[in-house]
């Protein structure tokens, strides 16, 4: 067979894009496929077995419609696009999520869809409940709260609260995060599937949970009511109140639902009860309402029958899975606890090791400091010893100096006393010398006067003698013989001799006087020198006394 023949036998396909709440998938579908074929392909790709809750939704002409399972995909009124987009969503809701949602994937898809409806304000939720739901959503996403890891601002990129709640209260993002984190910290130890289930258990009690609303009218001209279809029945609401229905029809109390063009009729099981008729805007709306009513009624009746073998197996598997997960979670919790304890012990050991290392380092530093201090102290001791020796030597020298100074002081005192005595003696001698000098000066004056008078007398005598000689003895040489007058001449000669002798005595006296005067001057000079020496010694003693006083 040729390759061309193989290509001719390959079926024609078209592409579809399946959009779940958190992912997108693309498939190639055969042209003859029905809606159920595409739906089963998507369920197999997701690993979903509880298929009866879900459907494929698409939007045509502004109206949301569900893909019919029993008709070909391309034969239905779907968007003309490539690829064709379908939303894989929950079409029917359980009455009790904890009992009916068996698979974890089913639970996760419901959790994501209900969370989106609450954030998009399709389901009304009070602000307090939204904070609690947000804390479970954070627990499902991030696991247990860890203040060291989940620092302030870690929820900044997450959408957790409806915009209506954010507008209603004037709180900052940090304040909302603080409120959510306070609840989040209390969910420690809750696994992801358990946190999602707790979220759904709170959400299923909300008035608008699982309700599909359609505008209706009691007559052809006015649209003043809302018809709601959910897992429990059909409810009639006023246009402005979607919380409390004006009238409700439980599935167990409805006998038949039918429509004729835009008119829809609800017949109660009680034949005596009034038949409820209303009008919708389009025939497609009535078909959609009827489709939802049939699906919810079938599930309602199915819940109240004995479970099929498949459901029993699924529940048993779910119980086993829950038990296994519980044991696994307990094991993980135990392992986590042991790991945390081991980490704490490790941290404690590391801290202790670090502390010991720090203590050892400090001890080494202290030892080094001690060694340095010991060396320094040894040096200081050596220096102190040397200083002590030097001080002892200085003390000895000081003691010797003190003794010397004492001796010097004593000597000085003695010398001073002797000097003072010598000074007193010198003063006395000086006084005596002055007196002697005065006396000698007076005597010298007297002697000089006597000498002058003697010389004057001698001169006069010589002159007189010459005069007498010239007059009386002119021929004294020519007559040398002795005569009676010789006696007078002899007397004269005796007088001359006496004069000569007297002259000699005067010279001798004058010489002695001169010699005594020179002796006196010599003694005066020596005495002055001695006085100068005494003054110098006294001055030196005074200086030494001052210095010895300073040393003391």
UniProtKB/TrEMBL annotation:
Location of this chain's protein in the cell: Cell membrane; Cell projection; Cytoplasm; Nucleus
SMART domains: B41, FERM_C
Entries under PROSITE patterns matching the protein: FERM_2 (PS00661), FERM_3 (PS50057)
UniProt xrefs under SUPFAM superfamilies: Moesin tail domain, PH domain-like, Second domain of FERM, Ubiquitin-like
Gene3D superfamilies given in the database record: 1.20.5.450, 1.20.80.10, Phosphatidylinositol 3-kinase Catalytic Subunit, Chain A, domain 1 (3.10.20.90), Pleckstrin-homology domain (PH domain)/Phosphotyrosine-binding domain (PTB) (2.30.29.30)
Coiled-coil annotated spans: 311-464, 517-544
Keywords on record: Cell membrane, Cell projection, Coiled coil, Cytoplasm, Membrane, Nucleus, Phosphoprotein, Ubl conjugation
Stored Pfam families: ERM_C, ERM_helical, FERM_C, FERM_M, FERM_N
Molecular function terms, GO-annotated: actin binding
Record-listed a 1,2-diacyl-sn-glycero-3-phospho-(1D-myo-inositol) binding positions: 68-71, 287
Keyword set includes Ribonucleoprotein: no
Domain FERM: 14-304
One GO location term (cellular component): nucleus
Claim: Cytoplasm is one of the keywords in the record: yes
Membrane association type: Peripheral membrane protein
Domain of life according to the entry: Eukaryota
Official protein name in the record: Merlin
């Amino acid at each position: 067979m040729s390759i061309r023949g193989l290509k001719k036998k390959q079926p024609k396909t078209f592409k579809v894009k399946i959009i779940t709440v958190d992912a997108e998938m693309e498939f190639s579908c055969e042209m003859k496929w029905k809606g159920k074929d595409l739906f089963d392909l998507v369920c197999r790709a997701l690993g979903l077995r509880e298929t009866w809750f879900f459907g494929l939704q698409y939007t045509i002409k502004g109206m949301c419609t569900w893909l019919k399972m029993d008709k070909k995909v391309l034969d239905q009124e779907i968007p003309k696009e490539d690829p064709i987009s379908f939303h894989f969503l929950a079409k029917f809701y359980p009455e009790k999520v904890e009992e009916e949602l068996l698979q974890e994937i089913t639970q996760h898809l419901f959790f994501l869809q209900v969370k989106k409806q609450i954030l998009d304000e399709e389901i009304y939720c009070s602000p307090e409940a939204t904070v609690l739901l947000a804390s479970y959503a954070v627990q499902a996403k991030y696991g247990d709260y860890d203040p060291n890891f989940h620092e302030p601002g870690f929820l900044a990129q997450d959408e957790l609260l409806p915009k209506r709640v954010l507008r209603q209260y004037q709180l900052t993002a940090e304040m909302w995060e603080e409120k959510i984190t306070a609840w989040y910290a209390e969910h420690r130890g809750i696994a992801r599937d358990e946190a999602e289930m707790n979220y759904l258990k709170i959400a299923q009690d909300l008035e608008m949970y699982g309700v599909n609303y359609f505008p209706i009218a009691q007559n052809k001209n006015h649209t003043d009511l809302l018809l709601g279809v959910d897992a429990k029945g059909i409810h009639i609401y006023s246009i402005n109140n979607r919380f409390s229905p004006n009238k409700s029809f439980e599935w167990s109390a409805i006998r038949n639902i039918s429509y004729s063009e835009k008119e829809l009729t609800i017949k109660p099981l009680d034949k005596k009860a009034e038949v409820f008729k209303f009008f919708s805007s389009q025939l497609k709306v009535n078909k959609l309402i009827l489709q939802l009513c049939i699906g919810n009624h079938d599930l309602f009746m199915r819940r109240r029958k004995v479970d099929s073998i498949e459901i029993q197996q699924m529940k048993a598997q779910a119980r086993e899975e829950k038990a296994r997960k519980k044991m696994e979670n307990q094991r993980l919790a135990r392992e986590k606890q042991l790991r945390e304890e081991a980490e704490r012990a490790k941290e404690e050991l590391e801290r202790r090791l670090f502390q010991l290392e720090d203590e050892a380092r400090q001890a080494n530093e202290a030892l080094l400091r001690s060694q340095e201090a010991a060396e320094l102290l040894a040096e200081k001791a050596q220096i102190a010893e040397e200083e002590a020796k030097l001080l002892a030597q200085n003390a000895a020298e000081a003691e010797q100096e003190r003794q010397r100074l004492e001796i010097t002081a004593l000597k000085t005192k003695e010398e001073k006393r002797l000097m003072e005595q010598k000074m007193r003696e010198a003063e006395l001698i000086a006084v005596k010398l002055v007196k002697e000098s005065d006396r000698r000066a007076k005597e010298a004056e007297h002697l000089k006067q006597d000498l002058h008078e003697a010389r004057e007398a001698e001169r006069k005598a010589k002159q007189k003698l010459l005069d007498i000689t010239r007059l009386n003895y002119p021929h004294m040489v020519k007559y040398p013989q002795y005569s009676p007058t010789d006696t007078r001449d002899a007397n004269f000669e005796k007088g001359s001799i006496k004069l000569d002798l007297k002259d000699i005595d005067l010279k001798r006296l004058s010489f002695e006087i001169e010699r005594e005067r020179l002796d006196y001057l010599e003694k005066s000079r020596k005495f002055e020198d001695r006085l100068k020496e005494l003054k110098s010694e006294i001055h030196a003693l005074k200086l030494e006394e001052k210095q010895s006083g300073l040393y003391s």
